[in-house]
Amino acid sequence: MTIPLAREGFEVVGLDFSEHVLALARAKLNRESAEVRNRVTLVPGDMRDFELGRTFAAVFVPNASVFHLPEESDLSQCLACLYRHARPGGLAVVDVVSPHRMANQEVGRLAPVREGLNPATGLPTRELNRKLRIERDVQTVRVEHIYLEGEGASQRTYRFEQDYRWVEQEEGVRLLEDTGFAAIEAFGDYDRQPFTEEASRLILVGRRPQERTP
Ligand SMILES: C[S@@+](CC[C@H](N)C(=O)[O-])C[C@H]1O[C@@H](n2cnc3c(N)ncnc32)[C@H](O)[C@@H]1O
Q1: For the whole prediction, is pTM greater than 0.90?
Q2: 24 lines ligand 1 (CB under 6 A)
Q3: Confidence check: pLDDT of 61 > 80
Q4: What is the predicted pLDDT for the residue at 211?
Q5: What confidence score (pLDDT) does residue 213 get?
Q6: In this structure, are 197 and 110 located in the same domain?
Q7: Are residues 92 and 183 located together in one domain of the fold?
Q8: What is the CA(65)–ligand 1 centre distance, in A?
Q9: Ligand 1 pocket, residue 48 CB under 6 Å
C-alpha cells in the first residue's frame, strides 16, 4: 500500500525487516514518477522495535503482516511502537484476515494462490499452498508454500513452511486499549462494514488520544 498511498499524494515511510522485500519495493518504486518516488522512504526495521524519531497522522500494519509475530507479547510490542509513532489524534490500523477464516480452513488441500513472474529469475511461476495444521489453542496455522517455476522437464519446485498466528477480535481490541489507543473500531472489510463472523477481514482501528492540556 506504500506506492498507492504515495500516488494519492501522501508522504509514506515503509518499513520491513527483510532486505530482500525492501529491494523488491525499491524496484517497484523505480518505475514510478519522480514525484511519487520522492514521497516514499523505505527503511529496514522490526515492527516490534523501531524508532523513526517522528510521528505520523496514521500508522498501518497492512496485509496480515502481524501474522508473522509468534506470540501475543510480540503483538503488544508492535502496538507500543505504533503508539509512539502515531501523533496525538492520529490513527493506528492493523489489517488481518478474519480469525474465523483462519481457524476454519481446509487442511491438506493444495490450493492455487497466484501466477506471475519470479522476480529473481523472470520465469513464469505458479504459487500454491497447503494448510498443514491448525492449532486453535495457540491461534496458529502452519502453511506449506509451494512455487512451481517454468514448465515440463525443466520445472523447478521451491517449498517452505511457515507458521501464522492469527488475531482474535477481543484480543486485538484489548491489546489496543492496553497500549493506550481509544475509540477502537473493528471493520470486516475495506468499505468499513462492521466486523462479523462472516467477514473476510478484521481491520482494527484505534486513535491515539489528544494530549491533555493541564
Ligand atoms: C504479508 S507480507 C506483506 C508485504 C508487503 N508489506 C505488502 O503489503 O505487500 C508480510 C511482510 O512482513 C515482513 N515481516 C515479518 N516479520 C516482520 C517484523 N518482525 N518486522 C518487520 N517486518 C516483518 C515480511 O518480511 C513480509 O515482507
Answers
A1: yes
A2: no
A3: yes
A4: 76
A5: 60
A6: no
A7: yes
A8: 5
A9: yes
